[in-house]
């Protein structure tokens, strides 16, 4: 009997600036975050996010954006009302906590990175993406007796940036990464797609929401971080280690 075929998504979003020229002393980290989930689990999560959007805005067209939510900007001005804010966060945290996905994040300490490699070295976005793809493969290795397909979904950043990233991805496909061979990448028929923010992809929005608290945790691990506490169990663990949070260098 042929193996079942299961599709997985790896939604990717970032927190912080991947540039190495101007460093923000309050945010010296570039964090790339990946959410890995199966097709059927994503359908459930996407529907639950749409229910939340309809509850607070009477439609599903609102785009959840971490910074706008924190600053109560644009549609999120409704969060100036404390009762609404409390209910919104209760509902949102329930989705983050109860949805089935794994977090694979890569944090680049830009100060250390520049000291070791200089400002003109490789693109930290590409480096972080390689780390996340590696860990996605290790994570999928744990799913047995199933043929797996992996689709990486990334928000468009601009023609030039997307073309550069597509070229980097093609190099990964032909050479593999430090720990994952090209053959293993081909086994999951890995592909990359770029989506416009206007397409309102709930998977990308959820990734954006979890990326910021993880970056804040990396910068200040001792500081109170209730948003991180909600999601920390979703970070991929292997042999008792928080393997889904790669720090570099």
TrEMBL record:
Which named protein is this? DUF3800 domain-containing protein
Q: What is the lineage of its organism?
A: Bacteria, Pseudomonadati, Bacteroidota, Flavobacteriia, Flavobacteriales
């Amino acid at each position: 009997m042929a193996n079942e075929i299961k599709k997985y998504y790896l939604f990717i979003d970032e927190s912080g600036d991947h540039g190495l020229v101007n460093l923000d002393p309050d945010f010296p980290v570039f964090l790339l975050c990946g959410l890995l989930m199966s097709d059927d689990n994503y359908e459930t999560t996407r529907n639950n996010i749409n229910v939340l959007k309809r509850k607070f805005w009477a439609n599903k067209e609102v785009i959840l954006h971490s910074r706008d939510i924190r600053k109560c900007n644009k549609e999120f001005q409704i969060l100036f009302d404390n009762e609404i804010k409390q209910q919104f966060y209760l509902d949102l945290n329930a989705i983050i906590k109860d949805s089935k996905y794994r977090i694979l994040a890569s944090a680049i300490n830009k100060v250390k990175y520049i000291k070791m490699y200089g400002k003109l070295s490789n693109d930290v976005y590409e480096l972080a993406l390689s780390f996340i793809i590696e860990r996605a493969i290790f994570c999928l290795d744990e799913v047995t007796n199933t043929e797996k397909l992996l689709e990486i979904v990334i928000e468009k950043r601009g023609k030039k940036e997307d073309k550069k990233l597509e070229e980097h991805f093609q190099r990964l496909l032909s050479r593999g990464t430090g720990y994952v061979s090209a053959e293993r990448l081909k086994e999951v028929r890995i592909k990359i797609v770029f989506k416009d923010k206007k397409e309102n992809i709930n998977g990308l929005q959820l990734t954006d929401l979890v990326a910021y608290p993880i970056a804040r945790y990396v910068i200040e691990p001792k500081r109170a971080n209730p948003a991180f506490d909600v999601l920390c169990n979703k970070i991929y663990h292997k042999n008792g280690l928080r393997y889904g949070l790669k720090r570099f260098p």
